Structures are given as C-alpha cells and as structure tokens.
Amino acid sequence: MLFLNSGALLAGAGAVGFYLQSSQADAAPFTTPLLLTAAACLGVATWLSMARGVAMRVGAGGVAFEKADLIRVPWHALESVAIEGKCARVRGQSVLGAPVDEMCNLHTYRGAVAALVAESAVRVPHVLQGKIRETVGAPLPAAGELLPLEPVQLAGRRCAHSGKTIAFESDGSLCKRCERIYLRTAKPALCACGAALD
Ligand SMILES: [Zn+2]
Contact at 8 Å (CB) between 53 and 67? Predict the structure, then answer.
C-alpha cells in the first residue's frame, strides 16, 4: 500500500509536468532545458501494471520499454502510433538503430498510451494514426510514476545536419522537441522537426 500511495503522489507530479509542458507549448515551445537536458528533472511516466507485460516510459526522452535492457525510441525516431484491435502499436527505431515494434494492450497501458499520444501530439503529431486521440483520451493525472532521465550522450553521435561525428559532449546540441542531435557549429536555425534550435 505504501508503494501505491507513493506511486500516486509521484504520478501526480508527473501529470502536472505533462500538463505544464502542453499548456506552455504555444507560448514558449520547449524553452525549458531542464525538461530535456537535466539528468534528474524529467516527466517520465512509468506504468508498472499488476498485469503482465513490459513497463512503458513516456517523457521528454521519448518512449521506452523496459525489457532486459531499456529500449528507448527518441521522438524523432518514432514512426507511428496506431490502434490495432485492443492494442496501441508503437513503431520506430531505437537509439541503437534497431527497429522497434511493440503492441501495448490498452487495458494494461491506457495511461501510458494516453501520455504517449499527448506528448506525440505536441512533438511529432504526424506519427499519430487514425482516431487514436479520440480512442485513448486524455492522460490521467493519477497514473504512472515519476522517474529521472539519464542525460543523452552526445559524444560519438552524428550531427543530423552535417553528418559529422560529435567528438565532445560540449560540441553537441539537442533539439528539445524531437531529440535530434546537432553539432553546435553546424546546426541550422530550425530543426528538421520545425523547432527553433537554441
Ligand atoms: Zn527537432
């Protein structure tokens, strides 16, 4: 019971994070670097269901599935989120370039899928297929658990604009909307997702 109570409290905080992010998107889109770059302040919702299945995380770091390893799909690599039968099908590419194709039961994962749909609608709306927003509904404020996010490693990654390899962390820059990585000296004014780059 203690776990459940703690989870509910943390879930409340996570839900506030989602709502704040959504409501501020028009006025000052993604101007809070804390959301994306800080190691310990990210709205990540994990739904650890009593039912079987992997847990899903949704937040500024994209969507992730807790399997033997954490399989994370950054927002820019998310390809589609669609309803198929009683499931949401999530497809994309992991940070390691591997294809991801997960079926998430809506009974088990409705809260997580609702959070995923809400975040996708702000960051990468083209991935949402059909009437998934109407089917899933709004995220529940009392669902999930708030977790910290490890910062994205930039060194060794390729610039999304120039293709050059980023040698040092300080040379890299991250789009706060979709997580595309750029070389600071080569980044364009606008990300491929349309967001302004700092
Ligand atoms: Zn972007």
Answer: no
Q: How far is the CA of 190 from the centre of ligand 1 (A)?
A: 8
Greater pLDDT, 33 or 110 = 110
Of 17, 24, 22, 29, nearest in space to 176 by CA: 29
Burial class (CB in 10 A: 0-12, 13-18, 19+), 87: middle
With a CB cutoff of 8 Å and minimum separation 6, the contacts of 35 are 17, 21, 41, 42, 43, 60, 176
For residue 123, the CA-to-ligand 1 centroid distance in Å is: 8
pTM tops 0.85: no
Kindly give the distance from the C-alpha atom of residue 33 to the centroid of ligand 1, in angstroms, as a whole number: 14
Residue-averaged pLDDT of the chain: 77
Q: How far is the CA of 121 from the centre of ligand 1 (A)?
A: 14
SS3 12: helix
